[in-house]
Amino acid sequence: ENAMRCKRNCPLALVARRNAVDISLVDALVRKQCQNKLYKLYEPKPVGNIIPFKTRDTYHVFIDLPRLSLQLAVFVRENSVMSSLFVSPQIIRPETRDAFVHLANAANCAEVTFGQFVVDDNDLTYLTWVPDWMIEEHPEEARQALFSDGVRRYEQMQEPLLGLAVGLWSAEKAVRYIETLYDQGYVRDDEFE
User: Fold this and answer.
1) DSSP 7
2) 40, 51 in Cβ contact below 8 A?
3) Helix count and strand count (H, E) for the chain
4) What does residue 130 show for φ and ψ, rounded to 5 degrees?
5) Edge to edge, what strands does the sheet with 59-64 contain?
């Protein structure tokens, strides 16, 4: 009787609304991931009369790779969780923006995952969206999609990212690096010096 109905008044049983995301499940995933020494959860706490900044995201995580620093913003929505992973500080300049767009497109075409690279303003961001049912029914896969896949992909792309950032690489060279990596499974450094 309370089923949702389409324009023809047919019941849409598969479209029934789900409950809101259980924040305790997301909290457990975040804290488990932050046991990795590369991940540091930002938890604002006042110190004396200094009040720390409050982020708009539900969780904020700092990730230190050997050559890149990343930040991860996690947003808990009503029926999903979204993460936004980005390089900090920003590495894109107006004159290199187009090259980073080419790199992001090549990386998105090379591997299909829950996330995608996007270039907005001066950021290269890896956005991931995971539905609530995945958090509840497949928490390890959700944790990997939200927290690990993007970091792995940034690790794989460190050479072209840094090459583009300092202006030593062309967009074509960066795209060729990504294509070689995904076609062969490895890249020989001497081919990209």
Assistant:
1) T
2) no
3) 7, 6
4) -130, 130
5) 39-42, 59-64, 69-76, 80-87, 123-131, 115-120
Alpha-carbon span 163 to 160, nearest angstrom: 5
**Percent of the chain whose predicted confidence (pLDDT) is above 70:** 85
| Residue type, position 92, single letter | I
pLDDT tens, 40-66?
998 877 667 666 666 677 889 999 998
Distances (CA, A) of 74 to 43, 106, 124, 181: 13, 25, 16, 29
- Distance between CA atoms of 106 and 117, rounded to whole angstroms? 10
pLDDT in tens, 18-40: 557 788 899 999 999 999 999 99
Q: Which two tokens stand for residue 25?
A: 């499940």
